[in-house]
């Protein structure tokens, strides 16, 4: 489930006047799954709160890093059994009895599928509106005594015995579904009718409503998490499609009505093709995806991004509904890469300014979706002609990713900002640096810090050679913009796209750029002369008065 398709809320309040209770909860929304956990530390156990926190943190981290070859059911059951055994053995070692004891309610959302498990009496509910008929269904199973007067006695809990048998379930999800995880402190205070009517208000509303019933003096710790499904992630369905993946394709072959003409790149996975007299680009998934789920995930994400990002910066892309092979289709753009175009001669200043505006507008468009391109460089930009005028198109979707994600060195080394080599997350400033490198390269046919090889740890200590020394046609204001975009000090580099775009659009307002090593005399010789003149006058006056 993508971060844009689910909203979460959670709150816990301690009983009475206590500042902290025995409940603990956590929600983690990741790119491919969402995990939510509520644990209610058993009050009769001395270390119930510690058990609740330990269980929650363990399950979140374990599911985040689960083996890709495991099913979700195997992952959930295996990790629950592991942490249960740890709690029990630690209790026996430290206290010689069961003290690290907690209940558990856990859900995992992947695509349009809900996976869940519980141990004890913490509950999981599904709220669904079916054609105006609202239903609230308890999906979990209470592990409690069924004898009258013994309803609060648990028959199972995490850490109570060395082995545990969680109640496990799976369900399909629909847009608009609400999922509630809660401790018994909530459902003992609010009826199912109240939960049904108020669930859409969120976790905080529910917990505070329960607290108000007791004038903010709750008889038990009370916790709730509410997950609202805005839309079901379509990438999951794309991934599950049963499609052909072949190692080799050949010219003349017809795939779903598209006739393959020639491969466009060396690996022969991207082809120029034709259908009904029109040319297209067909991009096949790498054959290695047959044995590597990560490659499959990346291609599905790429295809979805290509289809989703409908703007003039990119070629139009579609994922045919009735395709038989795993690929997607892009419109064919007649032209050549900016790398090849600028290799013949440096780009003109006017065209370079237009390129800068194009890249900044494209990047700003992606930021509206909380995305960054991740691999801005001349090889990924096509120079084409429209109405007698040269324009640009960005043709690579494979590197587009979430802003501020930690993708280490993903991208091309020569265009990576210095902080990216130190594991900094990708963001607007790192993208601005890549734009700066691109502008420097197309204007000078050189890299500001030389070409950087993969896995090289470059030094960014030396000063960049002013691009005007390599290309005298570059005006001073544009040089200042480029150098500021390339500053290795993030405090000096442009902070966001709009700041850089403003200066490019207003050349007269661009302040001269100087790096830290530039002397005051070089930065402002007139100021130095004025200071020297004033100093001489003061010195003469002092000498006159002295003698």
TrEMBL record:
Signal peptide: none annotated. Gene3D superfamilies: Phosphorylase Kinase, domain 1 (3.30.200.20), PPM-type phosphatase domain (3.60.40.10), Transferase(Phosphotransferase) domain 1 (1.10.510.10). Residues 8-229 form the PPM-type phosphatase domain. CDD domains: PP2Cc, STKc_PknB_like. Pfam families: Pkinase (PF00069), PP2C_2 (PF13672). Residues 243-514 form the Protein kinase domain. Keywords: Kinase, Transferase. It comes from the Bacteria. SUPFAM superfamilies: PP2C-like, Protein kinase-like (PK-like). This is Bifunctional protein-serine/threonine kinase/phosphatase. It comes from Sulfurovum xiamenensis.
């Amino acid at each position: 489930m993508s971060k844009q398709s689910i909203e979460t809320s959670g709150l816990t309040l301690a009983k009475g006047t206590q500042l902290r209770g025995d409940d603990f909860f956590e929600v983690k929304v990741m790119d491919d799954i969402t995990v939510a956990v509520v644990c209610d530390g058993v009050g009769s156990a001395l270390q119930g709160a510690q058990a609740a926190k330990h269980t929650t943190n363990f399950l979140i981290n374990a599911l985040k890093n689960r083996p890709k070859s495991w099913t979700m059911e195997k992952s959930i059951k295996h990790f629950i059994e592991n942490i249960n055994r740890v709690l029990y053995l630690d209790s026996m070692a430290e206290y010689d009895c069961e003290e690290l004891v907690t209940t558990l309610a856990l859900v995992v959302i992947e695509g349009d599928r809900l996976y869940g498990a519980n141990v004890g009496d913490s509950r999981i509910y599904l709220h669904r509106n079916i054609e105006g008929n609202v239903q609230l269904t308890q999906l979990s199973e209470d592990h409690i005594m069924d004898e009258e007067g013994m309803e609060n006695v648990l028959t199972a809990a995490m850490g109570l015995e060395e082995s545990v048998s969680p109640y496990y379930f799976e369900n399909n999800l629909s847009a608009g579904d609400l999922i509630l995880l809660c401790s018994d402190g909530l459902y003992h205070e609010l009826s199912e009718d109240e939960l049904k009517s108020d669930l859409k208000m969120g976790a905080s509303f529910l917990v505070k409503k329960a607290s108000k019933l007791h004038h903010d003096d709750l008889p038990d710790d009370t916790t709730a998490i509410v997950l609202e499904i805005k839309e079901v992630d379509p990438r999951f369905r794309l991934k599950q499609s049963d499609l052909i993946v072949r190692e080799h394709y050949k010219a003349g072959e017809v795939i779903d009505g598209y006739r393959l003409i020639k491969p466009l790149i060396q690996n022969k996975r991207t082809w120029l093709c034709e259908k009904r007299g029109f040319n297209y680009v067909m991009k096949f998934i790498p054959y290695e995806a047959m044995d590597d789920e990560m490659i499959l995930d990346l291609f599905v994400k790429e295809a979805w991004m290509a289809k989703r990002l409908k703007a003039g910066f990119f070629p139009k892309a579609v994922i045919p509904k009735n395709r038989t092979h795993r690929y997607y289709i892009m419109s064919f753009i007649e032209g050549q890469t900016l790398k090849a175009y600028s290799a013949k001669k440096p780009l003109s200043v006017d065209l370079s300014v237009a390129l800068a505006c194009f890249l900044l507008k494209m990047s700003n468009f992606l930021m509206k979706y909380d995305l960054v391109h991740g691999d801005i460089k001349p090889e990924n930009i096509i120079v084409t002609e429209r109405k007698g005028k040269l324009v640009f198109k960005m043709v690579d979707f494979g590197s587009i990713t979430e802003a501020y994600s930690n993708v280490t060195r993903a991208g091309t080394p020569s265009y990576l900002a210095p902080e990216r080599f130190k594991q900094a997350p990708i963001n607007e400033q790192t993208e601005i640096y890549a734009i700066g490198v691109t502008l420097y390269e197309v204007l000078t046919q050189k890299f500001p810090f030389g070409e950087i090889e993969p896995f090289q740890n470059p030094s960014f200590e030396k000063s960049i050679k002013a691009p005007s020394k390599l290309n005298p046609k570059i005006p001073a204001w544009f040089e200042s913009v480029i150098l500021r975009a390339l500053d290795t000090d993030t405090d000096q580099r442009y902070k966001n796209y709009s700041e850089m775009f403003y200066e490019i659009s207003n050349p007269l307002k661009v302040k001269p750029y100087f790096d830290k090593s530039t002397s005051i005399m070089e930065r402002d010789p007139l100021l130095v002369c004025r200071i020297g003149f004033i100093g001489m006058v003061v010195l003469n006056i002092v000498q006159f008065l002295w003698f």
